[in-house]
């Protein structure tokens, strides 16, 4: 079986890749029966020569390969019929902008495996760039703080070589006496936590956070059962909440009254209560003045996130009174960082981390009869039809 590392063609260009040259060499060593080829790319974080140096064929045309491995959506005109594809298709939530892409994959008889659907039996994701989104998002929030309040100047992550350089820049700054709320307990949140811990910011309990003031910066990592509560006053159950959050309401205001900098690292599920609304943000006790919204759900659970921002222009302000966008450093505004492709700023580290997990969970499945059913669970399309697991997308395709 031949696996091809394909060129990223989506705009704006994405420099990430699923396998670094080193991890591809590890894959070859572990699976000598597999053939790995690389499609030539002038934008990839690792140059063609780095792959060629390790003995990989770098080709202009990889259409002979069986399995195509990329990161972002493949333009419809570049999809090769009757192949297996791995990439982030952004279709499983019925995203309207990619409906035609899913239809094209069905028409071209493509077997589609979405990186997002590579999950364990309990649906926990096995691979992704979440950690890097968390790392860059938290850093960007501090960068905004420094610029807005004239405290310090951090360079953009994209100008730094790797995570070590990012952390070296953080070593040069001093964080003022602020209270930081980090939501989430997954890879994104733990990526953000890495930044907070590197800065030496003290983690405290929810109880202390909600009741005390400090003479040094502190943070709390709040679980969904802390910032959402059952409407009937009974004790919440996280697993039941994930299945059906309709019986819950937000308890976020208790945190908003005590928080200066909010890092949104949670996963927001459909029908879950919003963390804070536009009305909440108008409340005189609402203290949050800086939001790094890594989850980046637009006009949803985090009211100040009214649009995504970009790597080129990462910050804007949200005026709670007018509910309008203002400049990021406007007086009394909430400063918002809502870049929706954060891992792109750290392409080398993100690619290396991704390749490590892809090699651990995905490639073996092709050679062990998919004994853990990783491929079976991940497959969205087959034989021109949706797989049973993704049959709920049929009305999206039919546009009903």
UniProtKB/TrEMBL annotation:
Record-annotated Alanine dehydrogenase/pyridine nucleotide transhydrogenase NAD(H)-binding domain positions: 163-338
PANTHER family (UniProt xref): ALPHA-AMINOADIPIC SEMIALDEHYDE SYNTHASE, MITOCHONDRIAL, SACCHAROPINE DEHYDROGENASE
Quaternary structure annotation from Swiss-Prot or TrEMBL: Monomer.
Pfam families tied to this protein: AlaDh_PNT_N (PF05222)
GO biological process per UniProt: lysine biosynthetic process via aminoadipic acid
Any one GO MF annotation of this record: saccharopine dehydrogenase (NAD+, L-lysine-forming) activity
Active site: 72, 90
InterPro entries documented for this protein: AASS, AlaDH/PNT_N, AlaDH/PNT_NAD(H)-bd, Lys1
E.C. no: 1.5.1.7
Keyword Nucleotide-binding part of the UniProt annotation: no
Species of the source: Winogradskyella endarachnes
Xref: Gene3D superfamilies: NAD(P)-binding Rossmann-like Domain
Pathway: Amino-acid biosynthesis; L-lysine biosynthesis via AAA pathway; L-lysine from L-alpha-aminoadipate (fungal route): step 3/3
Protein name, per record: Saccharopine dehydrogenase [NAD(+), L-lysine-forming]
SUPFAM superfamilies in alphabetical order: Formate/glycerate dehydrogenase catalytic domain-like (SSF52283)
Enzyme class of the recorded protein, top EC level: oxidoreductase
Residues at which NAD(+) binds: 223
Recorded catalytic activity of this chain's protein: L-saccharopine + NAD(+) + H2O = L-lysine + 2-oxoglutarate + NADH + H(+)
Alanine dehydrogenase/pyridine nucleotide transhydrogenase N-terminal domain boundaries: 4-136
Keywords carried by this UniProt record: Amino-acid biosynthesis, Disulfide bond, NAD, Oxidoreductase
